[in-house]
Amino acid sequence: MARGMATMAVVGTTAEDAAAGPATPVNGTPAVAAPPATGADVTVPESRGRADAGVPTTPLVAPVAGAPVDAVAAPTLAAPTVATAAERPRPRPQPVAEPAPAAPVVAPVDPAEAEEFLRLFHTEAEEPGATAVKGVAARAASFEERLAEVRDEIARTGTYVHTSAELTFGARVAWRQSARCIGRLYWRSLHLRDRRHVVAPDEVAAECVGHVDEATRRGRIRSTITVFAPDTPTSPGPRVWNEQLIRYAGYRTGGRVLGDPRYVGFTDHARTLGWVPPSPMGRFDVLPLVVSGGGSFAAQGPQIYEIPPEKVLEVDLEHPDHRWFADLGLRWHALPVISNMRLDIGGVSYPAAPFNGWYMATEIGARNLADAERYDMLAEVAGKMGLDTSNDRTMWRDRAAVELTLAVQHSFDVAGVSMADHHGESARFLRHLEREEQSGRKCPVDWSWIVPPISGGLTPVFHRYYDEPTDTGPMFRMDPVQAARGQGCPM
Ligand code: ARG
């Protein structure tokens, strides 16, 4: 059963806001202690492997993701009605305990990187048939003309502005290069929301809500990316602190955690910024967005924004055969939107570029709800199944993980929400590999992320070797500062 498509809902960010009544879909609350900006934002290759599942990993790009990742998410914000900037509630300025963060220093674009990207764009746009990138083939100029123009622009300004065709192509190729993503067959279909003019935190938040809305489509999920202003030598772009736009809070209560333990730190940080959790607190409370503006807004530090609940589509989990399963009270959100990776294209870096695909059932059933450091539901499920949990050799964990994943897949199907399964997606991934080979390209793959967390050997992706992940070309990257912030460390 799908939740969250109700009507209008308004949530106050602070007790005061809540009391102020409805009509405030977006609430901003300035930082108490302004976290220093991102002077240290350094782009580094993502960390690898499943061992770091508890650390902000690098998500796969769009559609279906394979294994580990999790990113945080924050509820969708404001939204539809939010319309004009004038109507939008402004964050109330508050005294800041620390000096405003300095704007990140970004080096001028390396013309060689720009050239490499432009060459790729022009080469692929000229390829016939299936390899041409749908919808972006329109080039305003020849490669030579465009290169001269870009060189000149870099010399004058230290950066350059991508045409919208270049941006679309760059974002799609960044997805194509995402070594951890099993859903790359659809890389050409990525839908771009070009929001490069947006730097104000209220507007960033509202656009994040718009993203959730447009990508969810009542369950017919569309792979989408929203690109905000880039970092330039003279002005920082905005940042979204959440790992994912939609994620659940985690509350430490005594020795235990209510909700998602992965986000205990983030939840604490949101509370220091003024977020007031629902009362009573629950296991699936959608976190607020935490956003720092770009340009002159950067000095304000992070602001929080509630996502209107009706924008967040969720699915209540039930099992096709076990009636008791629904009583566990489990659910999950429909849309995974990774929001703290930067998008690098041809030397230009976009620090806020939230992107989504749709879920694969194992991500939720065999990781988010199963991992010991997440919702840790296997023992309870096994208990209800009547399994002997006193000994690993009964394989109760394995059996419970399969049933949990089956429940997820079944429930999403019943609710009409897009969801991949690991068998189908593995087969599609091999088709993608084949196509890439035919196009004469390498396909970088991180095996440990592509192989699903259950039944690995039952899927074809298990049984082969792949090209190594690369670190050049258009890429999604996790920088350490953003990674730490996604876990609640206000550095
Ligand atoms: N594994 C992450 C999660 O459970 C999502 C990563 C992206 N997944 C995707 N199917 N696009 O939320």
Automatic annotation (TrEMBL):
Keywords, in A-Z order: Heme, Iron, Metal-binding, Oxidoreductase
InterPro entries xrefs: NOS, NOS_dom_1, NOS_dom_2, NOS_dom_3, NOS_N, NOS_N_sf
Domain Nitric oxide synthase (NOS): 180-187
Region annotation (Disordered) ranges: 16-55, 84-103
Start-end of Pro residues biased regions: 92-102
CDD domains linked: NOS_oxygenase
Keyword Oxidoreductase appears in the UniProt entry: yes
Coiled coil: none
SUPFAM superfamilies associated with the record: Nitric oxide (NO) synthase oxygenase domain
Keyword RNA-binding: no
Compositionally biased intervals (Low complexity): 22-45
Name listed for the protein in its UniProt record: Nitric oxide synthase oxygenase
Lineage summary: Bacteria, Bacillati, Actinomycetota, Actinomycetes, Pseudonocardiales
